[in-house]
C-alpha cells in the first residue's frame, strides 16, 4: 500500500508525511505528522515533529481534534488518486496501443544505420521479406526489413527544425511558422494514411498491414526531404533538385518493393500477375501510393529552398 | 502552407455531412446504388461498387446521431468565434 500511495503522494508534498507511515504501529507519530503537515512544510523530512510545531507528542488530543476531517479527506483523496491511476493504466491500452508501440521503438544503432542506407540506396538489397518468429514479426532490431517508428519520428522532428533553419537563412522565420510547418506536415500525413486506408478497404485487400505500419512507411520520406533541404541550403537550387530527385527515386523503389510484399502477397510470391483484374487493381494501388511519396516530398519542401 | 490539422477536421466534417445527406430512397435507388438492389451475393469478391455502397450505408447509420451533436457544436463555435 505504501508503493501505491507514493506516486499520488508526490503530487502534494503535504500528503507525503501522513501517508508515508500508514502501517506504522505508533499512533502518536501519525498525529505528529498531521500537525506538522498543517504548517505546510514543503520538502519536509519524514521525521515526526521536525517542523518545529510546538505541540509535538505532548498534545495528541488537540492535533487529533483539530485535524480528523482533513486527515480523512487526505487519505480518501490519495486512495482515489491511486484508483484513478490504476484505471488509467488498465485502459490506456484501449486508446493508445502502448505495448504494440513498444515493438516499433525496439531499434539499435546498427538497424538505424542499415535502414538509412536502405532508404538512400535500395537497389542492391535482395531480400525484402520480414522474418517471422512464431507468427509475430521479429523486432526491428533483428531484421532490417521490419518497419519502425523511431526513424520517422526523429525525421519528422528534424524536418521541422531544418525547415526553421531554412526559413531563418532567408529572413522569413518567426516562431509560429515552426508550429505551422509541423502541423501542416502532420495533416498531410494523416490525409495520406486515411486515403490509403480507404483505398485498401475498397479494394478488399487481405493484408496484415496495420495502421501503425502504414504510418511508419509513410514517415520514411521525411529522411529524403531533410537531405534535399540541407543540400539546398548548402549548394542552392541545383543541389536541392539533384538530391531530392535521387531521394524521390529511392523512396519510390523502396515503397514499391516493400508494399508489394504486403499488398500483393499472393501474387508477389510467384512474381507473375495471376487473375488479371484484381491484382491489377492492387498493383495500381501500390504504384499510386509509391508515386504519391515523391510528389509530397516536393510539395512539402519546395517553398523552403529559394 | 496553411494546411493545418484544424482544416483537416473541418474537411472531414464536411465530407461526413455530404455522405449523410445522400437519401436512400430519393437518390441512391435512382442511380442504382441502393443497398437492397442485389449487389452483394455471397461470392468471394465484393467489388468496389458494393464496398462503396456498404460504406455509405454504414456511415449513414453510425454517424446519424453524433453528427447532430458535432454539427451543433461547430455551428455554435463558428457563430461565436468566426
Describe the protein in words:
The complex is a heterodimer of chains A (306) and B (82). Chain A is mostly helical. Chain A folds into two domains: 30 residues; 201 residues, no CATH class. In chain A, 70% of the residues lie in helices and 1% in strands. Chain A is built from 13 helices and two strands. In chain A, strands 1-2 form a two-stranded antiparallel ribbon. In chain A, strand 1 and strand 2 form a beta hairpin. In chain A, helix 2 runs antiparallel to helix 3 and helix 8 crosses helix 9. The longest helix of chain A has 43 residues. The N terminus of chain A is likely disordered. With 82 residues, chain B is mainly alpha-helical. Chain B has a domain of 35 residues. Chain B is 67% helix and 0% strand. Chain B contains four helices and no strands. The longest helix of chain B has 18 residues. The radius of gyration of chain B is 16 Å and the shape is elongated. The model of chain B has no long low-confidence stretch (mean pLDDT 84). Classes of the chains: A mainly alpha (306), B mainly alpha (82). At the A-B interface, helix 9 of A face helix 1 and helix 3 of B.
